[in-house]
């Protein structure tokens, strides 16, 4: 069964915010480790070099072949509840925000990408669905490599995000 897209596209002026959530039957500190510790990140998305305490690291995506290294600015790091970064890839800068909250042994991860061009949501949304599902697989004993982007995420989820982004624009 193919995954169902869960993300939302929220208008913010002429830009938008992409928002996705995932839940984990795990304490918040475990999920925090999965999104901040190099060895845990390597299982589902990539690795980093450098000292996070310096406010900047270099990130190397390992979930995609040939992806260039990216400079990552750590905008906020409040363990184990908030991580906000800016990723520099060529001339582009993406803001990524992760918030974690635990209730009754269940941790909810809310991922958002503010400042996104609404026209990009149809491509970016399926990508983050894919990476977050790889995270879920890594943290629940599954195999992240079994999560198939081309079969289940893109273009299968494109219309979901395209409809939401189109709803933000005034109709002609």
From TrEMBL:
Alphabetized Gene3D superfamilies for the sequence: 3.30.530.20
Q: Which Pfam families match?
A: AHSA1
What are the residue boundaries of the Activator of Hsp90 ATPase homologue 1/2-like C-terminal domain, all occurrences included? 26-137
What SUPFAM superfamilies does this protein map onto? Bet v1-like
> Which superkingdom?
Bacteria
Family of this protein = Belongs to the AHA1 family.
Name of the protein in question: Uncharacterized conserved protein YndB, AHSA1/START domain
What is the protein's species of origin? Parafrankia irregularis
